[in-house]
């Protein structure tokens, strides 16, 4: 099997590293550079966790210029992030596993996204600004035990800073960049009662002009920024055995839509970062939530934790999807969200066993009202409405058992029951221009026939429901060498619940539930550091047996069908390392090798077996450094260059294959190999940091998303360009 080449390579690297590290028999003492994570729902050193985990501190994110979750792919191997809406509703793809070409708001991400251990169901909420974070933890591979819900690809946990119950502190950061972009961040923390109560407030604001120039007379520029977010955390510790953290947050985005490269006739004479669009819409999103995390130490070995949350939000995305001054395809994506979750968790440590187990309940609701304006004679289109409600129940447990002082066995299992209801659904064909009141002329949902063949019935409704049960889990062996290096081998099974097609509006014949997807994942990893702490490293090789990936298939009509890809195979190799050869130089690097293919897949009568999975480049990597150049005026000057590379990738499961007799040109739905260079120069002392930065320094022209519209009957494909070069300066003052 070709995948064994990666495994052999990993074994060779592991063997070489083991032999060199084993020379240092004493474990290096923990220092200030120790990274503590909660990837297994308990505090551990990053190097003690037998998982492929990338942990990025809040300061590290700021130093790399990562200010939005949609930029995390620049720092995590084998992570791709894309969206048809810019930074809104990002699609996370880890090791080739993601929502693929899905664009509907009702689908759950196979990469679970969490805010302080709270699962965020709506993908619109995933496009968050990153500010005042303690760290971000990215867990690669299915997390079917402790995280569980819809995590066939992995999990991303954003962990905010909490009051430490001692003293007061804060900071203010102001910045200005090209495109007239002004940014402001700040946080203030104060102790209400020493060791007992503290409060922390943080705010994030950004406003800037569109990054893509619109040549249409009087037209607005796409890709503008207008963000405001706030967060308040209250921590209470009434006794040594009780710890309570209450959190509230709210935010809104009001930027213009992402730019679209569409109808080719109107791209003539335009630069890559230009468009000719008469109706640049708004990306209006809101998100808010409350949570209570209550931990009680029942004994010195047993802790009980309750996490309760209630979150909501909405999106109102007005998208001109033709990239032209004509009204060919104008869409309003409108949804409202609510969710509630409750987790009760027990942590036990003692007698050579560490156990984490508990119960989980989650509920989320999505109410959608979409409008699709098409060039129908006369002007008109389709209106779609539905309500989706999902509930998830789970019981889970994982035990780490010390077989010897160096060898540990991990056993974990999770039983999940998911129920889903799609109801109050209707859609109709209407007559009316863009922005004008529509006049319904025919029902299309419910209607199993050709659009326009069913008389309009305002009372007609369509409903479906489904449920899934799944047993997932984890088995792992890990061995800790005398040097502290960790070798592990694991099997994980992940599951993503079945789903209903949120894109069905021209006929109810395409609206049905499809099967859940499963991943059986095998992984071999090695991580550690040298005794002198000069080198830290993590290496992993993996193989996935992937069943029933959920994909969108766009067909003439225009009609979208949600389908399963029966069988796929993914395997690869990853490495992350930090190197400090001298005190003034810190080098960080990572790379990912990835092979993916559909073993069984037929769409529109075309055999696609052997094609690569979408958004799965074969090689990704990043190399960066922080070089403390010189002391000037009582502060340190640091130069931080960074290069990010990705090989070619496809945006469609068709790759470059076209359906016989169709108008498809799927070779357009791809991005070639590219490297982007970023850099920063900063001066800092104990309280002030001045930073100048440039991202995409050489103005690399790349696409981030593509969707087949030619096959749906339009004379163009839908392509979304990534951001051009951005640069600016910021000043941070701490107090």
Record field, number of beta strands = 42
Helix content estimate: under 10%
Strand content: over 45%
What is the overall silhouette? globular
Rg value: 26 Å
Structure class: mainly beta
- Uncertain residue segments: 1-32
Largest sheet: 22 strands, antiparallel, barrel
Rounded mean pLDDT is 92
Q: Helical stretch count?
A: 2
In whole angstroms, the N-to-C terminal distance is 58 Å
Q: What would your notes on this structure say?
A:
With 735 residues, this protein is mainly beta. The protein has two helices and 42 strands. The chain has a 22-stranded antiparallel beta barrel. The longest helix has 18 residues, at 4-21. The model is unreliable at 1-32 (pLDDT under 50).
Question: In a few lines, what is going on in this structure?
Answer:
The protein is mainly beta.
Descriptive tags:
2 helices, mainly beta, single chain, 22-stranded antiparallel β-barrel, globular
Walk me through the topology.
Layout: H1 4-21, E1 36-37, E2 44-45, E3 52-57, H2 58-63, E4 79-82, E5 91-94, E6 111-115, E7 118-119, E8 133-140, E9 154-160, E10 169-177, E11 181-193, E12 197-208, E13 213-214, E14 225-239, E15 242-256, E16 274-275, E17 282-297, E18 302-320, E19 330-350, E20 353-374, E21 380-402, E22 407-431, E23 439-445, E24 462-480, E25 486-496, E26 499-500, E27 513-514, E28 517-529, E29 535-555, E30 559-582, E31 585-600, E32 602-603, E33 606-607, E34 619-632, E35 635-646, E36 649-650, E37 670-671, E38 674-684, E39 688-695, E40 703-707, E41 718-721, E42 726-734
Parallel strand pairs: 6-9, 13-16
Antiparallel strand pairs: 1-2, 3-8, 4-5, 6-7, 8-9, 10-11, 10-42, 11-12, 12-14, 14-15, 15-17, 17-18, 18-19, 19-20, 20-21, 21-22, 22-23, 22-24, 24-25, 25-28, 26-27, 28-29, 29-30, 30-31, 31-34, 32-33, 34-35, 35-38, 36-37, 38-39, 39-42, 40-41
């Amino acid at each position: 099997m070709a995948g064994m080449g990666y495994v052999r390579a990993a074994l060779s690297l592991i063997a070489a590293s083991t032999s060199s590290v084993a020379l240092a028999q004493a474990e290096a003492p923990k220092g200030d550079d120790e990274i503590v994570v909660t990837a297994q729902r308990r505090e551990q050193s990053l190097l003690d966790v037998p998982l492929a985990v990338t942990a990025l501190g809040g300061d590290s994110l700021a130093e790399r210029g990562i200010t939005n979750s949609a930029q995390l792919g620049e720092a995590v191997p084998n992570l791709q992030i894309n969206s048809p809406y810019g930074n809104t509703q990002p699609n996370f793809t880890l090791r080739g596993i993601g929502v693929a070409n899905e664009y509907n708001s009702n689908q759950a991400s196979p990469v679970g996204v969490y805010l302080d251990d709270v699962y965020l169901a709506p993908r619109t909420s995933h496009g968050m600004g990153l500010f005042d974070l303690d760290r971000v933890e990215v867990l690669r591979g299915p997390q079917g035990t402790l995280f569980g819900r819809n995590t066939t690809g992995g999990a991303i946990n954003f962990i905010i800073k909490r009051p430490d119950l001692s003293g007061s502190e804060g900071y203010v950061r102001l910045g200005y960049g090209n495109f007239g972009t002004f940014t402001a961040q700040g946080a203030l923390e104060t102790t209400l009662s020493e060791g007992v109560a503290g409060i922390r407030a943080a705010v994030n604001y950004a406003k800037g002009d569109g990054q893509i120039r619109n040549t249409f007379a009087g037209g607005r520029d796409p890709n503008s920024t207008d963000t405001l977010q706030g967060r308040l955390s209250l921590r209470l510790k009434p006794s040594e055995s009780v710890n309570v953290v209450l959190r509230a947050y709210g935010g809104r985005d009001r930027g213009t839509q992402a730019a679209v490269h569409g109808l080719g006739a109107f791209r003539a004479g335009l630069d890559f970062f230009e468009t000719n669009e008469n109706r640049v819409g708004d990306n209006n999103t809101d998100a808010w939530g409350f949570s209570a995390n209550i931990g009680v130490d029942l004994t010195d070995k047993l802790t009980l934790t309750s996490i309760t949350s209630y979150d909501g939000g909405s999106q109102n995305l007005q998208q001109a999807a033709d990239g032209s001054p004509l009204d060919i395809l104008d869409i309003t994506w409108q949804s409202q969200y609510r969710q509630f979750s409750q987790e009760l968790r027990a942590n036990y440590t003692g007698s050579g066993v560490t156990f984490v187990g508990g119960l989980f309940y989650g509920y989320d609701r999505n109410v959608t009202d979409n409008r699709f304006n098409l060039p129908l004679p006369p002007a008109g289109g389709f209106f779609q409405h539905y309500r989706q409600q999902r509930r998830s129940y789970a019981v889970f447990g994982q035990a780490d058992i010390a077989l010897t002082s160096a060898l540990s066995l991990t056993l974990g299992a999770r039983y999940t029951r998911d129920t889903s209801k799609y109801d109050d659904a209707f859609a109709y064909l209407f007559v009316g221009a863009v922005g004008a009141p529509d006049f319904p002329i025919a029902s299309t949902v419910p209607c199993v026939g050709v659009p326009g063949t069913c008389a309009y019935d305002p009372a007609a409704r369509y409903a479906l429901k489904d449920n899934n049960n799944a047993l997932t889990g984890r088995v792992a062996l890990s061995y800790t060498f005398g040097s502290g290096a960790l070798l592990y081998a694991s099997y994980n099974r992940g599951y993503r619940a079945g789903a209903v097609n949120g894109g069905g509006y021209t006929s109810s014949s395409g609206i049905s539930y499809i099967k859940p997807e499963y991943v059986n994942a095998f992984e071999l990893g090695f991580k550690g550091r040298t005794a002198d702490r000069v080198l830290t490293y993590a290496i992993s090789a993996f193989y996935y047996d992937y069943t029933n990936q959920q994909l969108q298939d766009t067909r003439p009509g225009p009609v979208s069908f949600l389908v399963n890809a029966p069988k796929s195979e993914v395997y690869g190799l990853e490495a992350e390392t930090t190197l400090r050869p001298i005190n003034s130089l810190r080098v960080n690097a990572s790379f990912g090798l990835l092979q993916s293919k559909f073993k069984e897949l037929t769409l529109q009568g075309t055999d696609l077996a052997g094609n690569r999975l979408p958004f799965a480049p074969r090689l990704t990597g990043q190399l960066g450094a922080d070089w403390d150049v010189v002391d000037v005026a009582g502060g340190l000057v640091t130069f931080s260059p960074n290069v990010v590379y990705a090989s070619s990738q496809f945006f469609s499961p068709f790759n470059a294959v076209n359906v016989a007799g169709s108008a498809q040109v799927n070779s357009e739905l791809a991005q070639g190999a590219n490297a982007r260079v970023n850099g920063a120069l900063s001066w800092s002392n104990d309280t002030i940091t001045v930073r100048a930065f440039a991202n995409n320094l050489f103005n690399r022209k790349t696409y981030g998303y593509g969707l087949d519209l030619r096959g749906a009957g339009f004379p163009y494909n839908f392509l979304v360009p990534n951001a051009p070069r951005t640069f600016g300066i910021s000043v941070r003052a701490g107090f």
